[in-house]
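Journal club side-thread
Mid-discussion, someone asked how the predicted structure for our own chain would compare to the paper's figures. Pasting it here so we can look after the session.
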Amino acid sequence: DDAVMRALGEGGMNPEGLFFPDTYLFGKGTRDIDLLRQSRDRMRKELAAAWAARQADLPLANEYEALILASIIERETGHPDERARIAGVFVTRLRLGMRLQTDPTVIYGLGEKFDGNLRRADLERDGPYNTYTRAGLPPTPIALPGAEALRAAVQPDERDELYFVATGLPDGSHEFSRTLAEHDAAVRRYLARYRQGHSGR
């Protein structure tokens, strides 16, 4: 990673999140570093455009924090209609000083140790990417966010919601809640669907 970033003139930078995910056309003989530079420059432009169009009074200090939040949104949902709403949950939590408590950051922190099963012990083990044990954003992005996630991070749909959980439906949607009691009920509904879908296997 450091060799790539040094070749791009940014030695010491963590490369995660700095390259824009897209389809790129390039000619035969194009060097890998030139393609990476093109992707890096594209992310800079996309991020700058999103940041310039940001809502006022966001609890984000700079473009890089917006990039970190966008990467979490990218990992939390592939549902286009939910990105801004999920951003709203995280922004509301940041405003209140609540921990984000988002599984993808913990999974990223585990790296190759993650075996596909996130355990309670993983959530309780402190580390820089554990948003269950630490307040605020993790130190770096955890994925490559696309344009929609970047937009959602700086134009969140805030509805005073503090929680969301997968519905367990085939569309990959989530259920959002304002209170812990509502969230606990949503979790129970998800678990019931999960058990029903896995019964008899």
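Post-session note: The chain has a mean pLDDT of 94.
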